[in-house]
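Deviation from plan, reported transparently: P1T complex.
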Amino acid sequence: MKFATRAIHAGQAADVATGATIVPIYQTSTFTQSAPGEHKGFEYSRSGNPTRQALETCLASLESAAHGLAFASGLAAENAVLSLLRPGDHVVAGEDLYGGTGRLLRQVFAPLGIRTTFVDTSDGAALSAALEPSTRLVWVETPSNPLLLVTDIAFAAKVTHDNRALLVVDNTFATPYLQRPLELGADIVVHSTTKYAGGHSDVVGGAVLVDDPGLASQLTFYQNAAGGVPGPFDSWLVLRGLKTLALRMRAHCENAASVAAFLASRSEVESVYYPGLPSHPGHELAGQQMSGFGGMVSLRLAGGRDAALHFLQALTYFSLAESLGGVESLASYPAEMTHASLPAEDRERRGISGGLVRLSVGVEDIDDLLADLEQALEASRG
Ligand code: P1T
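Because the crystal trials were delayed, the predicted structure below was used instead.
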């Protein structure tokens, strides 16, 4: 079965009990047993629920993974992966990554004795140099949030494995339609399914995908023992979103490419960050390890913070909002929104400041999006 077919059919056979064509929302916390311990595969919805199981099967199929686990949010999924670590373990993580992931590493796991070194993982030499004998996990976001840096997954897997550590790739921005890290050597894929997987900005969720049965059983134990699971309705919303992932990603890529080219032609814009532009330092690599360049575009306005704020206020179809990956276009100011939890000097050093704006390019008509951007750029001049 090809990708778009699996998105619609994997884990989604007609319901055995009723023939329902669409996986039902099994809105139940518990399952009646015929005798103690005798049941039909489900006992209690924290441990397992048929709607969640359908989602987990579908996500695993799309990521070419043997095992899929769904969580209540992307951060709950990340927390499950980090629970594999013990005090004294070391993590190497990309320095450009979602602010909440950095906060989890710095403010939740560091006090537990799990240290993280943040480096630019798109720089192979910097990545290799950051590995230590106690490094157990390498954590990569590619393309990264918000600067769209591209890390070589196959290279990262090699140096990580040479160091007897595990490579985690946050595949939220790319989605399995454009990039499948497990096929390139990664050990663990994480997702915020809140984003492109769900696709409609109406649900918060997360997922972890692995091949290794040992990792799968540790993570399954943690999922049940710690309990950060999604409810049946949220699972169903993500599953419904996945059915159109291929269609949506093609439209996101096409619109984002037009937006990036348009922004690059404007004098108000100092730089455009989009892996699909030949000028992007990761363009060639992205062309090899991804089958499209995605729907996220960041830009730096020459007029700095004031220009950025005027631009954001003037936009009509791009809502000023956190999050990304929905059918509707969103715009954010990372320094004061998604990445506000980073230490200020880190933000400044990495350029998450001044005129930096992040766009999640939706699937509206491109003419309307470009007209909206044009009038907002004019307004950004103040
Ligand atoms: O919000 P949540 O579902 O918990 O997912 C966290 C997360 C994980 N990984 C990446 C790459 C993400 O972008 C996110 C969440 N990001 C935003 C809310 C944002 O606007 O960037």
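The domain at 246-379 is CATH 3.90.1150.10 (Aspartate Aminotransferase, domain 1). We consider this an acceptable substitute for the interim report.
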